[in-house]
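Milestone 3.1: sequence recovery, worked example.
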């Protein structure tokens, strides 16, 4: 398996090379040259496997340059009952026949990002141990990627994490999860701005190829293909848990901001998983819904990005969307470059009325939006009807998923986080605080360690240089 750039400017590379690199040198995203296909007979062989066995079978198809015994050991070490509070790792909760929630938030930071990030941390450590290199990870978070990355990388040899977050825009719980970490290899940078400003800085630094090489810059955001590969696994797990036969189809409802989570579902579908619909749910920042409704992709300016009660989706530039457009164009790198030339300058593109727009329906996507009133009502309704408490993002997914639910087709909503991370909304919905897992009782009162900066890529570079003096070039 080799990887190319969505913009055509990178020679094919093996998995281990793109694992540490983040953005391709031409500013594009790494994609496998082809998707591995899984036949109906292959699906039958996967059904019934444990999560660890399933993860090996899926991920080994994308990471075939890592010796199989090494990869198997990494996966077994990552997906443990102790770390994810369940032998199933991603247990399926059935609300009623044909309606399910895939439990993805039982990891160390109580968010679905842990499933990919814990694997990424162990993959990084394995590759760096073999090469003797160091890595400075630069990431951006709207609330969940940051804690997941920091908890996965804390204390790991040869790794430093520089995590950018929008100052004052995350929940108190999410902020405390990150800022309370005292590990010397973790650096939190609160940016005066919104998530998109943080993401723009990560891309600007990654596009400075000389700086990236000199200071060994890598990324853990979902622009890193390994994140997508790890998330593909739980689509297969959810499908097998909700069906009895590989002749059945299911639909997945996915809360979406940066298009990474649902991109993994798109790849699973392309590999042969019988997915009928990928139901994309946005909050008030409805850039992706606007595209799937109209054909126009128009990222918003910073001032237009709304701060909502599902803050991890307060994103107006969906990085992974470029991966879908790459497939939509038939992997036409010249076309992708042309479209993103406008996007990168703050513009938009409109496919309405084109042959490409006609092809969108062939990929199974439908979409819808939610807002504060709808998500609070959904949290309350799911609690009253099924005795299950969900967080605001999962509520957005359920709200939109139920709007597109079809008779006879199981609907699986991907859980994104535990309710305790967003207690203000939970109190508004049901009148009392959500239960806190053991160990989190005093989180917000712990000492915090972070710096505040303007949205300035040069300032972030200078900070990285200051903190990494002594690392060999």
């Amino acid at each position: 398996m080799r990887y190319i750039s969505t913009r055509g400017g990178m020679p094919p590379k093996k998995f281990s090379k793109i694992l540490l690199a983040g953005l391709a040198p031409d500013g594009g995203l790494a994609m496998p040259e082809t998707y591995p296909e899984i036949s109906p007979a292959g699906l039958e062989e996967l059904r019934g496997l444990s999560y660890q066995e399933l993860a090996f079978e899926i991920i080994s198809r994308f990471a075939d340059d890592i010796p199989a015994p090494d990869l198997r050991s990494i996966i077994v070490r990552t997906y443990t009952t102790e770390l994810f509070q369940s032998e199933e790792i991603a247990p399926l909760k059935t609300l009623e026949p044909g309606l399910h929630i895939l439990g993805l938030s039982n990891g160390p930071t109580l968010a679905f990002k842990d499933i990919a990030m814990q694997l990424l941390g162990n993959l990084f450590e394995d590759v760096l141990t073999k090469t003797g290199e160091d890595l400075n990870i630069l990431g951006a978070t709207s609330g969940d990627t940051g804690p997941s990355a920091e908890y996965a990388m804390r204390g790991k040899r040869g790794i430093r994490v520089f995590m950018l977050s929008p100052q004052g825009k995350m929940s108190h719980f999410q902020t405390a999860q990150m800022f309370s970490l005292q590990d010397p290899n973790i650096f939190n940078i609160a940016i005066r701005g919104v998530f998109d400003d943080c993401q723009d800085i990560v891309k600007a630094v990654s596009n400075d190829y000389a700086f990236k090489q000199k200071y060994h810059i890598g990324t853990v955001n979902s622009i890193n293909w390994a994140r997508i590969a790890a998330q593909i696994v739980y689509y297969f797990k959810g499908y097998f848990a909700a069906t009895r036969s590989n002749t059945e189809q299911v639909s997945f409802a996915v809360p979406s901001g940066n298009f990474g989570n649902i991109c993994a579902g798109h790849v699973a579908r392309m590999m042969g998983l019988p997915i009928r619909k990928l139901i994309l749910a946005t909050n008030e920042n409805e850039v992706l819904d606007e595209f799937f409704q109209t054909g126009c992709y128009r990222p918003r300016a910073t001032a237009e990005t709304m701060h909502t009660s599902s803050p991890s989706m307060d994103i107006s530039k969906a990085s992974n969307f470029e991966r879908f457009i790459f497939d939509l164009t038939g992997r036409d790198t010249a076309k992708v470059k042309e479209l993103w030339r406008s996007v990168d300058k703050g513009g938009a593109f409109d496919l309405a009325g084109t042959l490409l727009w006609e092809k969108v329906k062939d990929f199974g996507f439908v979409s819808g939006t939610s807002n504060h009133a709808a998500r609070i009502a959904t949290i309350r309704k799911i609690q009253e009807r099924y005795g299950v408490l969900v967080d605001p993002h999962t509520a957005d997914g359920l709200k939109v998923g139920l709007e597109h639910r079809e008779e006879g087709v199981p609907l699986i909503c991907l859980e994104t986080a535990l309710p305790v991370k967003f207690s203000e909304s939970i109190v508004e919905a049901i009148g009392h605080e959500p239960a806190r897992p053991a160990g989190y009782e005093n989180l917000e009162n712990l000492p915090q360690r972070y710096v505040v900066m303007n949205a300035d890529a040069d300032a972030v570079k200078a900070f990285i240089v200051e903190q990494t003096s002594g690392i060999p070039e």
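The longest helix spans residues 113-131. The first strand starts at residue 3 and ends at 5.
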